[in-house]
Task: structure prediction
Amino acid sequence: MASFTVCLATWLYILLTPSLIISQEFPRRKEEYYRFQLTHPEIVHDTGYLLDGSEFRAYIFKDSVKRFFFSVDEDNTPVSITVTPCAALLEWQLTLLPDEGSGDGSGDDLEKNFEEQRTGLRTDQSRTLLKTYVGNTRSTYLSHDSPAGDFMLEIRSPETDTNVYIYATTTPDSDQPYPHLPTDPVLDITSVHRNTLTLGWKASPTESIYNGPIKYCVTANTDKNFDTFCGFQSFHNNEPPPSIPPDFGFGFEFETEIIERHRESRRRYKQRQREVRDNDFRIECVGTKTQHTFTDLLPGKQYYFDLFAINTRNNFSTAYKGTTLKIRKRNHHKIIEMKDGKVITSSVRKSNSPKSFRFRLFEPTDDLLFTVHPCSTQVYAEVWKEKEMIRGIEVSELKNLSLSQVGPGDYFLKVSNSRQRSASVKVSVTTRPSKYPYPRMPADTRILEFDKLRRCDSVVLAWLGTKERSHYCLYKRVESNERRHFRRPNTCHGPDMRKKTEKMYCRHYNTREGKSALTEQVQGLSPGTTYKFDIYVDSYGAETLPYQSVWVTTKENC
Result:
């Protein structure tokens, strides 16, 4: 009965006078009482007394202060008290309460002291402040020669309801409950390839030196880094509020309110658990491996990676220093570099963003000439300097976009296609006319046929020449009248795409000598036959351009 009276008086004192300085004697821990607590967890909940060498999980309501106590029986005793926050920042302080004797007082004395303090008849005595802390990370108070007495730990959560873990011991050197970190406890990113990332780290000395039972768990999420493993679990709703022991309390009315708040917290936890999306976070436990690869990460997402070393014997964990990385979006329209006078052939698909080509100009120039050559489909082309658009235009055939008196900088040619079919296009840029890759075509690129000179076996063709000495090749192909209704030809296809049997001849003409119109009599044709004639021209550049095709049917009777 006396033992029960001591326990009851202690609990009532703690519960009803939290704002007063404790001045009466606290009961010393007896071995039989310690064993009793191990099998009755409600004792810790009721009295706030922490067991030596055991981690206790508590739940702190927002803006409320919760107190815990830890007894030391002898002077010069090592003491270590560790507080691990979970879901929120914590404010806590540790004080040493005044010691008032041997603690052998009777139950009647304790009841008398309690009554005096409850009615405010006793005078507060000073406490010794040992440590204060505000933060999200695990923090430890450690003393190797603590005096005998009772330690009071006061914890407040200013942000939200949260779990907290408390570990108190008088044998910190031998306990070593938490995994040790290496001298460089950093989670390193060793490689990144598109949406795949590999992480590496150094082994915990608990494993590598002391052969302790360690496993590593790597986490990835899109919210933030975490300083504790329970912090990660709480944030992603894997750390429910602890259940209240079935024999909690003594039946007071205010205890019903505490129980109801715990039940409400567990109801909110279950509701949030249904709302958590699987792709918001990942956790991979990899045993004793010291590297891990995450795959299928989402482009454009900022990921936060954390590593926790976990003692598999007691599930205590220690966090490495985490890292973060934004997974780059795959650039389907990467910038293509242009060189002076070089032609680039590219395919432009229908897309919300154009295909970009960049030319870097390092010194001022009088003229900068961009050339856009759509092969068969109209495109839209824009010329930009840095982030400013200079010119934009619809382009259905070869088009030169000229800039005058331009300065150094990055110039961009952006080509887009609004049609369903992909569009082939050739682009080039030059600062020197001699490097212009195309023949300079006349304004009229038709091939004319003189019907009055048409015969059964020959026709006469005429076309306007280019403005320089050029090389012309004539091709013919027999076609039916039905094939004349065709889609737009691919003007990027040159004579190399034609059959050798279709080639008639190639000749050089120099129109600078005053001969702007060129004529050619084509012989050896068959009577009453339809021919398609094509002329391809190139000057001294790399590119060939076609004239517009012409269809001619020879006379059937001559």
User: Anything to note?
Assistant: Residues 253-275 form the longest helix (23 residues).
